[in-house]
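fold description:
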Amino acid sequence: MNGPSHVKNRFGFAIKQRRQKLGISQEALAERAGLHRTYIGDIERGARNLSLENIEKLAKALEIPISDLFANYGVE
């Protein structure tokens, strides 16, 4: 299934995978990115539609280029 929900789910999965690879909690990621912990949980579940500013904050907090959040996990 493709569409907005699919993209949000895949993006959330990419965030979660990278966070786990770094060995950090949702709370630690939230602190690094300047976002709320529950917001990170919502993102990882595909329940949020992020702004470009928050995508940039997350990429910096996860220590990867923004493009990696899309390219490495099949988000098109």
In short: Residues 4-71 form a domain with the 434 Repressor (Amino-terminal Domain) fold (CATH 1.10.260.40). The radius of gyration is 11 Å. The chain has one domain: 4-71. The helical segments are 4-22, 26-33, 37-44, 52-61, 66-71.
